[in-house]
């Protein structure tokens, strides 16, 4: 059995339909492709669920159901006990699904006669990745019964009920122990809540040539080091600290200094050659008491910042973690408009009343602004996008990046990184315990370090998000933001 031909690609249901059509138009036998898909499902079911007393294959009327009929035939031929149930009308005559049903040599029972029993393994071939309407009540009842009995489910393409484009649940869905999809991942495999419902994921090559996949795939990928590793700085004997980049992080007031120190420490651990904490006078003592390798600079006013900016060796900035003073933040951002900047937390909120003021300042020249909003902060700058139910998280992030002329790191367990040019990545390596106080401050500092080293903004953000997840995994459950910083591993090209 062959694995995915494009390990990082994420393909929307519409793009997958176009790939299927292109494959048929190129002379490939579409039924042979369905046979490869269904056979893979059957083989995985037999291998992964040897404890099954009975395989129950639930087939819908479309091509997903066709895969199910072929899987049923494959499992029965191996000697397994197989029960087959069909939902709705028979597949359209003359199509591949109808051919698969005819070739199955098993008469399916009506879906509404299915009664789950202990020892069943459910092969869910009801709806494919393009499913976007609410699940009907008859199917929802079966889904709830299977879940209540804790029966293993192997889903074909996506757990039925999950929208492959957005990851949303359309009323009800199966919770799969394992999902088998073909050619490449779909957005619903990585976006929440779909990702939590897929279980282990197998991505199978069914014989569609790579050239056809590349011709119809867009600019959406899973975030991996392969995307940004070539942009990472390679250290050599001639490197000195300024060549590794000088990162500046702005501190909040005397009672709000910890977040900026976390960002600064993370920047240093992530590879910046120097990190300076730009602190208000009243916070200098609090910051000095906790800093060793991170340097300290008194910056209280726009005038002081403007003078400091004459030092062009300062190569990137982080503004926002617990900064507090939104009016000062707006003034500082104006002075930083031609510099490489990570804007987080209070730095984002500072522009909630007039986001265009921020966007216009970074509208020309190379992309140099990275913003790292969570859902609430995103809605403050992009209220219309946040409220549009037709948009997926990926759609929102891409639209926001284009509007703001910034790289958007739309945070969450399914963080999306989007560039104004339309490229986007979905991150999938973050453990759930990263949802802790200070974790976002660490991420801002990590991205700032990559900007300071000269990485392009999109790659700098992507590397920061991936390394953040990697550090969280290494730090382990129970980590704090401080131990997260200590778990940051070196960045290798």
From TrEMBL:
Signal peptide residue numbers: none
Its cofactor is: Mg(2+); K(+)
Residue positions annotated to bind AMP are 411-415, 440
Q: List positions binding K(+).
A: 64, 124, 160
Give its E.C. classification number.
4.2.1.136, 5.1.99.6
Q: One biological process GO term for this chain? A: metabolite repair
- Describe how the cofactor binds: Binds 1 potassium ion per subunit.
Query: Which sites bind (6S)-NADPHX?
Result: 63-67, 128-134, 157, 259, 374, 441
Q: Subunit structure, per the record?
A: Homotetramer.
User: This protein is called what?
Assistant: Bifunctional NAD(P)H-hydrate repair enzyme
Q: Which organism is it from?
A: Pararhizobium antarcticum
């Amino acid at each position: 059995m062959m694995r995915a031909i494009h390990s990082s690609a994420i393909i929307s249901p519409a793009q997958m339909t176009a790939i299927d059509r292109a494959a048929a138009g190129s002379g490939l036998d579409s039924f042979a492709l369905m046979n490869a898909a269904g056979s893979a499902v059957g083989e995985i079911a037999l291998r992964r669920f040897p404890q099954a007393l009975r395989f129950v294959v639930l087939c819908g009327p479309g091509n997903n159901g066709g895969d199910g009929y072929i899987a049923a035939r494959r499992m029965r031929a191996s000697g397994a006990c197989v029960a087959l149930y069909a939902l709705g009308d028979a597949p359209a005559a003359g199509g591949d699904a109808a051919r698969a049903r005819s070739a199955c040599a098993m008469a399916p029972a009506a879906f509404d006669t299915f009664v789950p029993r202990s020892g069943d393994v459910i092969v869910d071939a009801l709806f494919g990745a393009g499913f976007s309407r609410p699940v009907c009540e008859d199917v929802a009842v079966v889904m709830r019964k299977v879940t209540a009995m804790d029966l293993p489910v192997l889903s074909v393409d996506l757990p039925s009920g999950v929208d492959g484009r957005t990851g949303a649940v359309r009323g009800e869905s199966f919770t799969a122990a394992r999902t088998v999809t073909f050619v490449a991942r779909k957005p619903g495999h990585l976006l929440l809540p779909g990702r939590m419902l897929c279980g282990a994921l197998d991505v199978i090559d069914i014989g569609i040539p790579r050239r056809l996949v590349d011709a119809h795939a867009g600019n959406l990928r899973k975030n991996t080091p392969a995307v940004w590793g070539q942009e990472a700085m390679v250290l050599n004997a001639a490197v000195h600290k300024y060549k590794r980049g000088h990162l500046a992080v702005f501190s909040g007031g005397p009672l709000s200094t910890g977040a900026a120190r976390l960002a600064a420490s993370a920047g240093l651990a992530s590879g910046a050659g120097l990190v300076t904490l730009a602190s208000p006078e009243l916070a200098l003592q609090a910051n000095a008491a906790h800093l060793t390798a991170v340097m300290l600079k008194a910056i209280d006013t726009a005038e002081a910042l403007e003078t400091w900016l004459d030092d062009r060796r300062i190569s990137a900035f982080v503004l926002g973690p617990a900064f507090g003073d939104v009016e000062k933040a707006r003034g500082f951002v104006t002075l930083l408009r031609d510099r490489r900047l990570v804007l987080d937390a209070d730095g984002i909120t500072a522009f909630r009343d007039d986001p265009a003021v921020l966007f216009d300042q970074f509208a020309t020249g190379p992309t140099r602004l990275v913003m790292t909003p969570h859902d609430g902060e995103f809605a403050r700058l992009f209220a219309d996008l946040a409220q549009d139910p037709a948009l997926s998280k990926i759609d929102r992030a891409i639209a926001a990046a284009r509007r703001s002329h910034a790289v958007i790191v739309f945070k969450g367990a399914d963080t999306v990184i989007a560039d104004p040019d339309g490229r986007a990545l979905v991150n999938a390596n973050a453990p759930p315990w990263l949802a802790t106080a200070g974790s976002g401050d660490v991420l801002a500092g990590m991205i700032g370090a990559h900007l300071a080293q000269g990485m392009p903004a999109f790659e700098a953000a992507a590397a920061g998000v991936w390394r953040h997840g990697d550090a969280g995994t290494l730090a382990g459950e129970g980590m704090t933001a401080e131990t997260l910083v200590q778990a940051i591993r070196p960045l290798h090209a």
